[in-house]
Write a structure and sequence with these properties.
Layout: H1 3-14, E1 15-21, E2 27-32, H2 34-38, H3 41-58, E3 64-68, H4 73-83, E4 87-90, E5 103-104, E6 112-120, H5 124-135, E7 139-148, H6 153-159, E8 163-169, H7 170-181
Parallel strand pairs: 3-4, 3-6, 6-7, 7-8
Antiparallel strand pairs: 1-2, 4-5
Helix pairs in contact: 1-7, 3-4
Length: 185
Amino acid sequence: MNEQVLIKALVEHAYLEGDFVLRSGRRSRYYLDKYRFETVPELLGALGERLAIAVAEHEPEVARLAAPELGAVALAAAASLASQLPFLIVRKEAKGYGTSNRLEGVSESGELVCLIEDVVTSGGAALQAVETVREAGLVCRTAICVVDREEGGSDELARHGVRLWPLFRASDLLGQVKSVVNPHG
């Protein structure tokens, strides 16, 4: 799936207009519903391939991927299959039973990990995942997301030593929305 076709598919499946409160607490007139694109096999497969390519380009020495639950796990699994890199699931909090781990999967201290994210707004969820990964003795200096909403998340991650590489920016998708609504400019 080429870039323009993928952008169009993301807009068609995930772009919603209305009055939304985002995880960051901010209000928005639009919402990118990650579950609407992560649950479509054709889109998930195409995104997994693009994420794997981006990981190889921006963090070629990486040992494994990591993804915050729940939203980015399907993306990390798709990228893992495409890249053959193992991945970790980063829990928001330790479960109260079993291993009580915040990181699910196997890793060794000192390994280089690349964070996979879905939609980044303020960077809060990504930063929490990076902190969890680092507390486990792993190195994380790169995050790759499907969409950067361009609302400060990249800068916030940079302040903590993490470079964000988006597959797409909100402006890419919003430009597609405008062309669908008014195709003649």
